[in-house]
């Protein structure tokens, strides 16, 4: 597999949002942590190295599965 995975868009709604990449394979561990401040956007793919992404802090996420906020029960409109 190369870099043909889905994209995920993360927009920080507060300072210090963390976007953490977790490794693909038998060993699931953090391999990258990116800090975003308010209004900053990260567009990331799932790759041969990255099988999961963890987001900490208030953010708006857009994926092929829909749009959601990290901090509420309510989906984005
Ligand atoms: N070097 C990583 C990779 O190719 C970069 C990366 C891709 C990443 N997607 C990510 C880092 C999501 C954090 C979160 O897999």
UniProtKB/TrEMBL annotation:
<keyword id="KW-0694">RNA-binding</keyword>
<dbReference type="InterPro" id="IPR023558">
    <property type="entry name" value="Trp_RNA-bd_attenuator_dom"/>
</dbReference>
<protein>
    <recommendedName>
        <fullName>Transcription attenuation protein MtrB</fullName>
    </recommendedName>
</protein>
<comment type="similarity">
    <text>Belongs to the MtrB family.</text>
</comment>
<dbReference type="GO" id="GO:0006355">
    <property type="term" value="P:regulation of DNA-templated transcription"/>
</dbReference>
<keyword id="KW-0805">Transcription regulation</keyword>
<dbReference type="InterPro" id="IPR016031">
    <property type="entry name" value="Trp_RNA-bd_attenuator-like_dom"/>
</dbReference>
<comment type="subunit">
    <text>Oligomer of 11 identical subunits arranged in doughnut-like structure.</text>
</comment>
<keyword id="KW-0804">Transcription</keyword>
<feature type="domain" description="Tryptophan RNA-binding attenuator protein">
    <location>
        <begin position="5"/>
        <end position="70"/>
    </location>
</feature>
<dbReference type="GO" id="GO:0003723">
    <property type="term" value="F:RNA binding"/>
</dbReference>
<dbReference type="GO" id="GO:0006353">
    <property type="term" value="P:DNA-templated transcription termination"/>
</dbReference>
<comment type="function">
    <text>Required for transcription attenuation control in the Trp operon. This trans-acting factor seems to recognize a 10 bases nucleotide sequence in the Trp leader transcript causing transcription termination. Binds the leader RNA only in presence of L-tryptophan.</text>
</comment>
<dbReference type="Pfam" id="PF02081">
    <property type="entry name" value="TrpBP"/>
</dbReference>
<dbReference type="InterPro" id="IPR000824">
    <property type="entry name" value="MtrB"/>
</dbReference>
């Amino acid at each position: 597999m190369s870099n043909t995975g889905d994209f995920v868009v993360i927009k920080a709604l507060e300072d210090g949002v963390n976007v953490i990449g977790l490794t693909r394979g038998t060993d699931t561990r953090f391999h990258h942590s990116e800090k975003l401040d308010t209004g900053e956007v990260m567009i990331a793919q799932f790759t041969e190295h990255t099988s999961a992404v963890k987001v900490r802090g208030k953010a708006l996420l857009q994926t092929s599965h829909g749009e959601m906020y990290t901090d509420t029960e309510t989906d984005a409109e």
